[in-house]
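Standup notes, structure subgroup. Blocker cleared on the FE2/S2 (inorganic) cluster input:
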Amino acid sequence: MIDKSIMAPEAYKPLAFRVNGTDATLDVPPAKRLLSILRDDLLLTGTKRSCDIGRCGACMVLINGEPVNACLAMAYQCEGKEITTIEGVRGAEEGVLHPIQQAFLEEGGYQCGYCTPGMVISVVALLAVNRAPSNEDIEEALSGNLCRCTGYGGILRAVARAVELGKEEAHAGNEAGSGADVG
Amino acid sequence: MDSGQERKALRQPRVWRPGGPAEAWMLKHTFGGDGVFISGGTLLRTQWESGGAPVPAHLIDLSGLDGFKGIARAPEHLMIGALTLLATVRNDPLIAAYFPLLTEAVRSIAAPSIRNLGTIGGNVVSTVGDALPALLVYGARLEMYDGAQTRDIAAADWLSEARFRQGTPLLLQRIQLPYELSKESDVPGEDSGPPQPPSAKRFGAFHKIGRREAFTPSIVTAAVTGAWDKEGRIQGLRIAAGGGQTVPHRLTEAEAVLEGKRPEPEALAALYEAVLADYDPCGDVYAGADYRRVTAANLIAASIWREAGGARGGDVMLLNRTASGGRWRIRPDGPGKVTGKLAYLTDMARPDMLVGLVLRSPHPHARIAGIRTEGARRLPGVHAVLTHLDVPGLNGFGIARQDQPVLCADRVRYIGDAVAAVAAESLEIAEQALRLIEVDYEPLAVIDSPAKALAAGAPALHPQGNILHRRYYKRGDMEAAFAACAHIVEETYVTPRQMHTYMETEGGLFVPEQNGRLTVYAPTQHGFMDRLQLSRILAIPETAIRVVSSPIGGSFGGKDELNVQPYGALLAVQTGRPVKLHNSRLESVRAGLKRHPMTLRMKTGIDADGRLLAHEASIVADTGAYATLGAEVLNFTVEHVIGPYRFASVEVEALSVYTNNGMSGEFRGFGGNQAIFALEGQMDRLAERCGMDPWEFRRFNMREKTDPGPLGQPIAQSDGAAQVWRALADSSLWRERQGLSARAAAAGADAPWLRTGVGAAFIMHGGGLGVGIPDPAGGRLRLAADGRIEASFSYEEFGQGLLSALELMLIETFDAAADDIRILIGDTDLVPDSGSSTASRATSMMWKSLRNMRAPFTAAMLEAAGQALDRPPDTLRLGPGGIYDAGTGMAGAAGATAAVHGVHTEPLLGYAELAAAVEKPIRTETSFHFPTTDKTAAVGAHFLYTYSAVAVKVEVNTLTGRVRVVDQFHAVAAGPVINPQGFVGQIEGGGSMALGYALTEEAMMEGGHYLIRNLDTYLIPTVADQRGTVSVLAIEELPDEDTHGPRGIGEVGSVGLAPAIAAAVAQATGIRVSRLPIEPRLLLRRPAFLDKAVSIK
Ligand code: FES
Ligand code: FES
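Run returned:
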């Protein structure tokens, strides 16, 4: 027989996780989607909603550093995890853009901007593990992020620019012995 | 829906987190059909959201079963825990070394983010996962737990039984993959070092063919593995194939055909035939079983043939960042977009807001016999339930003709028709309220094609019948002209229903203000038009409504017409509370506009020299249930099927027909896309018929500079047509074409099934709404109290870079700095009505407005400054930061550039000081009409045109029929380039839409219902579909006497690529398609190596 004490469903345990470096505890149903938690409960609307089924990447966030579609992840899957949304992406200091954001800005890697937060998140995730991605690597990493406006030209130029900025920074970092990192 | 389902859908599932397989199994056993095992949940979530499966009452989360995660080495096999993430499998070096086909297969599943949630076990138990063919050829076994014990079963056996299995739940724990070994000594022992990968004698291939290049549902998946013996014979051949809803299976008969044989042509041909016989795929609306079968046979035979025998270049951006220098600017809206801080209107919320939802008809055509809302009204938390009885004003909307009911009273005409609207305290309550509204429908015969609508005796969808609009144009003597032709080409072109697919679905916030006014925060392309339409519906004055409409997460014409605004406005007024609506993608697909599907029949003739003599076109457009801009789109098509060519005799007859299909309306290109696809198709066919080079044929028949427009109307003259023609003829891409004959197009001996072709298209695209249609324009400049030069226009920023273009123009017009400027757009309370941001008109109209206002505004500024400084105004000039001595510093554009580098001198008087000093406000306004042709011309005829020529190189894989766009060249003659970054972006982005139009996009309907529901089946291009270079050449030169400045470029990029792709495909394969999107099955070819001797290494 099932021991009810260990087998209680998790409906009533509040969700405890970290969002952009801050601990958060929320009383939400365990199957609630992370996308709705971020946008409706935490008012972090930088994470966008578009397809609700993991096909567009507008809702991309990092969970423990890995890119995940917030419209697919459910509350219980985020328990104890570290979530990074676009609001948590920034440069070395508060108020300074992340080099990847800077690259998108300079190259015009956006038009309407609705896909941009998700796109930036996916590039952050890519460059964190691969500083010099090949075209195939970039295609694979961004294949889950749809953009209807740009035809991806500006986005690919932004990624190339971000790789360059990363190299410059790594170079500067090595000289200073600080091991500065992109992403 | 029955009430049981209602409860299920409402219920939040409980999540159980068993610690071991026994507990998990017990839970499943207890809950039966009410409980579902869940690991990553990616597939389940998709099914729930799209209504494919109900949300179960109990989720049995397997992620706590730690013993079944990860990859471990056992003596005879590799073990993969069922709960191992797909991402882990994808990146595992051991799998890559031993089971490379599995790595390949997993790489093709969805996208990295999905693979970070989804597990290999989930992919397997779905029974149709793309990993399965690879697992099958590797002889995988599955460890299953049945509540009592763990047993292992061959994956192949489990799959073949899967369809029939009922009852006892099974829990997949691990997957075993026996090592593929060529030598006994390769077996890795417990303590031995890293095992050696299989020796090179083995071979394998994995193929996944979808409808686009990445993140696509599969159509065919196939895995092949085997080894060569010393004599070059095949040993241990294993083949598995699946795809779509086909449960993958081994093709054992096909394997047997080649086993122990050399891959000679006869043997390969036998294999090919055996695959055709042995592989039994399920067809669907996207690809029939025959296509799948032939594609699988081609791929499998080719992988063995290739085993036996057998880049993206640097970007040449002609208009690019480097070439643009200081004019390549960071957009004013950029920082907010890259940081996510910019709040879109669908991001807005108010603490006291209600959630609004619309009840839409489930029937494409029905009479409404009754609507009962009592149940919904009684539900706690519901604040309003509205039907047609609650519309105080006009129960109709439409930019041109208000024939679409806000809320249907007695009849519904398409599956998006709105019947009721609710506002409630939460989305869940609102959803429940919709389910409680009872509507009695009496289904009527569904008119699901224009042919049915036009048939004698067809029921009339509207009082005037089923024809929204008819357009006829004729000049010349058709009969005589055709009689004189040496060659005549007749063809029927069919174009698809394309979806705008703006990433932000429709929505907004509707706020009743304290002062009794209503504020509407909802994306649109013309705020004042929404205000007018809403005032008619609400029966309140326009001045009582404020429409805030930017920023917009994409529109492309799709948000010009009202969408959720009437419901939000009515609900907000009724409840006195802010109401938010935000369409789900499903609802957006169902209710939203699409590009008109059209059938264009053409008959075009030339004389023996290739000169065009006669052109006849008959066009039928499916406009759907209501008018919106269907008539205007059709007018545009009529003008553009004549286009830039000199026909002595032309006859065009066009009909826009009401049906019970989804709504068609405005979409980037505005009817030009369909027209140009057909017209350019004719030009290519005629050139071929008379043996002329297709581009030369166009030059021979092209308009001259002083010719009238397509409908014989006077137009603004320019050399655009000749300029873009020449640019394309000189392009390296076009010259490359000359080197490719259809025969030599085969790309090397290694992959003879890849065929390359280059094609081109010529476009003359009208800007503005055309003559006879109100097309007002204008704007305002003022010096604000804080010293900013404030420019106000009613245009909208939906991503095209309008803010950036305006900022640049202001800087260059007034020699001001970016900081001196403030731009106001998208708010009817703040800006004058400048007309709509449609028809590629906004940039032209801002340019003209600033040209009109430059002198009076500058004079007023200098006049005031002169008074303040006590100097004659003509000794002063405007500059960055303020007023300067006209004799010092640099003026004009050079000054602006200098300002960027921070080397200007100090102004005599800052703008803020000037603002403080002036007595009467400095303010200039302009209003005018978009330049139009002669009033006697046909309604909609244009005056300003953008010319473009597009060349494209494609690669066609004749094993699969899939077309891949390699390189593009766009020459665009549109006058001065205002905003280089925006210009390139518009052409690249428009091109991407055309690529989808040509290759993957079609919102299919059947019986008035959409077959596509979301972005899993409606496929727009991914980054992987956009390989290769896109070169954009902007031709800025205009005749000296031209006063119209920049022409529109927002649409033209979306028009020409599709016909160019069709032409390139024809060069590559010899096949001329007449239907979009191009069907891969038409391009399949039996591999030549099956029929002729080939050398085997
Ligand atoms: S909204 Fe999550 S992937 Fe589209
Ligand atoms: S910028 Fe609009 S969707 Fe990418």
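Discussed briefly. The longest strand of chain B covers residues 754-767.
Next: hand off to the docking folks.
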